[in-house]
Structures are given as structure tokens and as C-alpha cells.
Amino acid sequence: MLKIENLTAEIDGKQILNGLSLEVAAGEVHAIMGPNGAGKSTLSYVLGGRPGYEVTGGSVEFRGQDLLDMEPHERAAAGLFLGFQYPVEIPGVSNVQFLREALNAQRKERGEEPLTGGEFLKLAKEKAGLLKLDMEMLKRNVNVGFSGGEKKRAEMVQMGILDPAFAVLDETDSGLDIDALRVVGEGINAIMRNENKGVLLITHYQRLLDVVQPDKVSILSRGRIVKTGGPELALRLENEGYDAVMGEPA
Ligand code: ADP
Ligand code: MG
Ligand code: MG
């Protein structure tokens, strides 16, 4: 589904990704772990096509297409969803408005009819229920005054509504208490655990991986993948730390 080969990218002339290669097949959850500053968020921004992140080499194939050749909105319409480490606030725009616009823009791009207000509200209620987020929250302005946990749950409602083929989730567990972590993790499973979908799950903690069990775990360090293994790799990192595990031969 996603095939990244020898990707290099820079910000402000500083090279951050240094020949990163990674593949995620349909049906897989691939966890990415790594020390602070390794380039995990940079990878998600590059995949999303964020301005300022300049790709200087390598390739990314997404569902048979050249991802790097696509505009950010084309990537989204092709089924790519990005969850952010720091969700943005949008004063003056309600969640419902925002989500409906986002969904209908993608449907238009794919040549599909927009959902009516009624159809959209039904869908939004279903997904809000899944994430145990009160519909009243969705009537409020996007993320304004939301707690960390509410932002993440609202973002997962957005993911449920857009129903992407592939999600890149950057530290979705940050700032969540134990209960919210379980709700969000189970939401990810419900929305994305499917033989036709894939997930790149960036996290520092095993506790999310207890809920969203990864098929593969890779360690990202200094802008490249230095080790890939199964779920046991995350457990070893938790117990032994990065230095011990990365010090071994790949
Ligand atoms: P991670 O998510 O793994 O903690 P990041 O991708 O956020 O790492 O950052 C990787 C490196 O890129 C860090 O050294 C960080 O300081 C640097 N970096 C991130 N954003 C910028 C920026 N806008 N300008 C310059 N350097 C940046
Ligand atoms: Mg970081
Ligand atoms: Mg980060």
C-alpha cells in the first residue's frame, strides 16, 4: 500500500530524513518508534505534503501512485489521512461544518455526490458514538477549548467520517489518560483494522500498542529506519531502552 524508498528530505536546508525506507502492506499496522528528534513527525509531514518540507531524493508509492507528485488535497482524496501530534484550533468554524466540508471536498475530488446535511449528521453521530464524544462537542469550534483528550477523540471522529484507506497517526496517544487511550485505541481498531487498510502508528509507548496491536514495529533514528521487527521489539524497547536495542546489529 505504501512503499517508501531511500527518502531524503530537508527543512530550511537542514537534512532530516536520511535515506528512509519502509513498506506497509494492506491489512497491516506498522508502529514507528524512535527517540525525540529522530524525524518521526517530519516523516508524517512529508507524507502529507506539508509546505516547507522539501524532498531531495527517494520515492514514495501510495496505492500504485507516485505520492510525492500529488498535491496534499489529492493525497487526501486518494485515501491518505494524517493525525497530528498537535491538532490545530480553528476559531469560527464548527467541527460539524469543518468535517462536512472536508468529506464533501474529498467526495467531489473522487467524482462522488456530496452528502446532504441529514446524511452527514447521521454519519457524524455514529462516529462520535464510537469515540464516546458528545455530539455537543462537534457543534463547537474546531478544537477551541478542547482538552488534549477531546482533541484526539475529535480527530479520530474525523478519521471515522473520512474513512481513509491509510492513516499516519503521530503520537495519537500523547496527552491521553488511561480511559481515553483505550477509547482512542479501540476507535483506531474499529475504523482502520481491515484487510484493505493500513496504518503507520507513531508512538513512544507500549500502552497504545497493547490496544492497537502492531503487525510490525520499526525504529526510526537520525532520519532512517534502523531496525524492524514484530510486536516484541516494542516490548524490548520499553524494557531495555533505545540505546541497548539499537546498538545491536540490524
Ligand atoms: P520527532 O518527531 O521524531 O521527535 P521531528 O521530525 O519533529 O522529530 O524533528 C526532527 C528534527 O528536525 C529535529 O532535530 C528537529 O529539531 C528538526 N526540525 C523539525 N522542524 C524543524 C524546522 N521547522 N526547522 C528546522 N529544524 C526542524
Ligand atoms: Mg517529538
Ligand atoms: Mg514528533
From TrEMBL:
This is Fe-S cluster assembly ATPase SufC. The keyword Nucleotide-binding applies. It comes from Qipengyuania xiapuensis. Residues 2-247 form the ABC transporter domain. Belongs to the ABC transporter superfamily. Ycf16 family. It comes from the Bacteria. Keywords: ATP-binding, Nucleotide-binding. Transmembrane segments: none annotated. The lineage of its organism: Bacteria, Pseudomonadati, Pseudomonadota, Alphaproteobacteria, Sphingomonadales. It holds the Pfam family ABC_tran.
